[in-house]
Design goal:
Signal peptide: 1-19
CATH topology of the largest domain: D-Maltodextrin-Binding Protein, domain 2
Shape: globular
Distance between the termini: 69 Å
CATH superfamily of the largest domain: Periplasmic binding protein-like II
Keywords: Signal, Transport
Strand content: 15-25%
Family: Belongs to the bacterial solute-binding protein 1 family.
Number of domains: 2
Structural class: alpha/beta
Pfam family, one: SBP_bac_8
Largest sheet: 6 strands, mixed
Number of helices: 17
Subcellular location: Cell envelope
CATH class of the largest domain: Alpha Beta
CATH architecture of the largest domain: 3-Layer(aba) Sandwich
Length: 395
């Protein structure tokens, strides 16, 4: 009888739990911390149960989600890249969460919370946010008596000094994130007043600088499909500098032994320039019940516990989202290079909060590739991208 009662109690408890299907994009090495958080959340309370599934990187996950939204089978909770969030909100796919966010920790960084907002409403709960870093080959810099560049002019000068017959000073990616980081550092933006600003002063200046280095043979351009080759260029000393998020180095170190000392420096900035807060957020999708939405918020708060945040930061090099977590990270942030790069959070701003950008950015990436890989003049390539983006906007 006791055994029967125990079984019945267990079945009643399981049926009372709110199930939350969860698609995430956390691969190695951060997946270990996220999976531990999911397991400990499920074990720590009886009201909710996350059913997690890894669905690939940001772009793969976005494609799978769109397919699931059309055919059915979309999850309740989705871990997606920040630039995808405004579109989900505009289309009514992501649900506003402000009603469930009444008792947040007081030490959360406001600007980081703003990355999940669209037009003043919260549609995303930031999970991992990073800032860009200028990575450089310390051995090559020492050999040539160079110091880490502090301005973009110094980046150009270093690229010229480092370039040779078989190597380039800088590897340049033609993806929108990398280019936008450069534009923001100059004080510009890819979008103004809800419209594309691909021909604005800072955007043109940014592409002209990259074009100039490529044309002189001081930089190598790689498109998104060649991202693996961009990393290989750096690792095989075919290039000595590159721009990437803080999270890039732990991923590379988890996969291979580095053949030289890697340095990292803050992205050069002009006065008034900023750096992008990029990464991913949790979104609760349409069809979710209020209980499921509340469960998603409960998991996010569980993930934000200071010790868990510290483990997440140490493993992934994402920024800590809470000030309390920094107490656990004193030794981690003692490294002067790491400290300087992480300090960019003070000038970090959401990199994309415009729903239309996901429609336009393909035209910009095409323009970047045409200019940097095919030699089309920057102004010409950007004007064409602007025309195409505006034509879509008018439809």
């Amino acid at each position: 009888m006791r055994r029967l009662l125990a079984v019945l109690t267990l079945l009643a408890w399981a049926s009372a739990q709110v199930s939350i299907p969860f698609w995430h994009t956390a691969g190695p090495p951060g997946n270990r911390v996220l999976e531990e958080a999911i397991q400990s959340f499920n074990a720590s309370q009886k009201a909710y149960r996350l059913e997690a599934r890894y669905v690939g990187d940001y772009r793969e996950a976005g494609v799978k989600l769109l397919a699931a939204l059309r055919s059915g089978g979309a999850p309740v909770l989705f871990h997606g890249e920040l630039s995808f969030l405004p579109r989900l909100a505009q289309e009514g796919v992501a649900l506003p969460l402000d009603a469930h966010l009444k008792d947040l920790p007081k030490d959360l960084y406001p600007e980081m919370l703003r990355t999940g907002q669209v037009k003043g409403k919260t549609f995303g709960l930031p999970l991992g946010l990073s800032v860009p870093a200028l990575y450089y080959n310390k051995d090559a810099f020492r050999a040539r008596g160079l110091r880490p560049p502090r301005t973009w002019q110094e980046v150009e000068e270093a690229a010229a000094r480092l370039a040779g017959r078989t190597a380039k000073g800088l590897v340049v990616s033609t993806d929108i994130w990398s280019f936008n980081a450069l534009v923001m550092s100059l004080g510009g933006s890819l979008v103004r007043d809800g419209l594309p600003a691909f021909t604005s002063k800072e955007v043109v200046e940014a592409l002209e600088m990259l074009y100039r280095m490529v044309q002189k043979g001081h930089a190598q351009a790689r498109n998104l499909a060649e991202a693996q080759f961009a990393v290989a260029d750096f690792l095989r000393t075919k290039a000595f500098m590159g721009i990437g998020p803080t999270t890039a180095l732990p991923v590379v170190e988890a996969q291979t032994a580095l053949p030289f000392a890697v340095g990292l420096a803050p992205l050069p900035r002009r006065e008034g320039g900023t750096v992008p807060l990029s990464g991913a957020a949790l979104a609760v999708l349409k069809g979710a019940s209020p209980e499921q939405a509340q469960g998603a918020v409960a998991f996010w708060l569980h993930f934000l516990e200071p010790k868990r945040q510290a483990a997440w930061v140490r493993t992934t090099w994402y920024l800590p989202l809470r000030k309390e977590a920094e107490k656990e990270l004193a030794d981690f942030l003692k490294d002067p290079e790491r400290q300087a790069v992480f300090a960019q959070a003070e000038v970090g701003r959401p990199w994309s909060q415009d729903p239309e950008l996901v429609v336009w950015y393909g035209y910009l990436e095409e323009a970047l590739e045409r200019s940097l890989k095919q030699g089309v003049r920057p102004q010409v390539a950007l004007e064409e991208a602007q025309r195409k983006a505006l034509a879509v906007e008018r439809k």
